[in-house]
Design a protein that fits this description.
six-stranded mixed beta sheet; D-Maltodextrin-Binding Protein, domain 2
Length: about 325
């Protein structure tokens, strides 16, 4: 009997010892191999910058290589779908941004759920949109632009980076708020849209600040106002639309880190901690600010809630403006 009890006890202890290291290893050892960071755009631009900057920083902090993989196409649809199909093991992440997780769900039927198909890990930051006009247009303020648009019905046209993009929707929001009329000219990206304002082929544009900053500083575009809750330090003399009495213009071109749905909480928490630590460090904060990108540290729950509200906001605008897109 003593021998049987001793044998049983020994087997139980051996089983416990076999299980404990495995459970501990799965949490403590991650990551043990390179991590893929998908940028849902072609190389260049804000999304790619965030992917490479955060990949370098997180790789150094976690002791593993982050491999940035650009997957453009479908306005981020191809990359987003790839992430929803990836194993939730912490080895496939993506830069989710206002296009993939804000405006796209509001204007298109997607083959995935922009909320349930992902784990919101951490917000990185955002850059405001800036309302600019061609210098040839005889307006120097938002009130003058509104007055000019009403005095010349349908005479003005505005460009965008494409139908359904933030640069399109925020302009529709402006038209709704000011009860003005301007024709929409969609482009394949923000660069050609800026070029046509510079050439006075279109007169108004609402690009991200980072994309238009050099042209504004060079007096080739006239900045009238910015979105967001406060003035941007790179344009301290340019008022916010909120200051001018136009409520609800708090949206920004934001960028964050996402993973597949059901990412283990321990991995999510560790990544979130490192993201917030990195974006609030003086060195990275200064570098991002130079790109007009302001850090926006959030918990995973706060980031998830932010995404839900952003989708709801743009969906409501699409319905109100009766915007129809393929």
């Amino acid at each position: 009997m003593d021998r049987r009890q001793a044998l049983t006890g020994g087997l139980s202890m051996a089983a416990a010892m076999a299980i404990a290291p495995v459970a501990g290893f799965s949490q403590e050892a991650w990551p043990t191999r390179p991590i893929k960071m998908i940028a849902p755009v072609a190389p260049g631009g804000g999304v790619d910058l965030v992917a490479r900057t955060m990949g370098d920083r997180l790789g150094a902090a976690l002791g593993q290589t982050f491999v940035v993989e650009n997957q453009s196409g479908g306005g981020g649809l191809i990359a987003s779908q790839a992430v929803t199909r990836a194993a939730p093991d912490g080895y496939t992440l993506m830069v989710g941004y206002v296009g993939t997780h804000g405006t796209n769900p509001a204007v298109r039927k997607l083959p995935y759920d922009a909320i349930k198909g992902f784990t919101a890990i951490g917000m990185v930051g955002g850059t405001p949109n800036v309302l600019v006009v061609a210098p040839e247009l005889p307006v120097k303020s938002v009130s003058e632009l509104v007055a000019y648009a009403k005095a010349h019905p349908s005479a003005l046209s505005y460009g965008s980076a494409g139908a359904g993009t933030l640069t399109h929707l925020v302009m529709e929001q402006f038209k709704e708020a000011t009860q003005t009329s301007m024709s929409h000219v969609p482009y394949r990206g923000i660069s050609p849209a800026i070029m046509d304002v510079l050439g006075n082929h279109t007169q108004v544009l609402f690009p991200g600040l980072a994309a238009a900053l050099s042209q504004i500083k060079g007096d080739k575009l006239r900045a009238l106002a910015v979105t967001g809750a406060k003035r941007h330090p790179l344009l301290p003399d340019t008022p916010t639309l909120e200051e001018l009495g136009l409520a609800g213009f708090d949206g920004v071109q934001w960028y964050g880190i996402m993973g597949p749905a059901n990412l283990p909480p321990a991995i999510t928490a560790r990544l979130n901690e490192e993201i917030n630590k990195q974006i609030t460090s003086p060195e990275l904060k200064e570098r991002l600010s130079g790109e007009a990108l302001e850090p926006m540290p959030m918990s995973p729950a706060e980031f998830s809630d932010y995404v839900k509200k952003d989708i709801a906001k743009w969906t409501a605008l699409v319905v109100a403006r009766k915007l129809e897109m393929e």
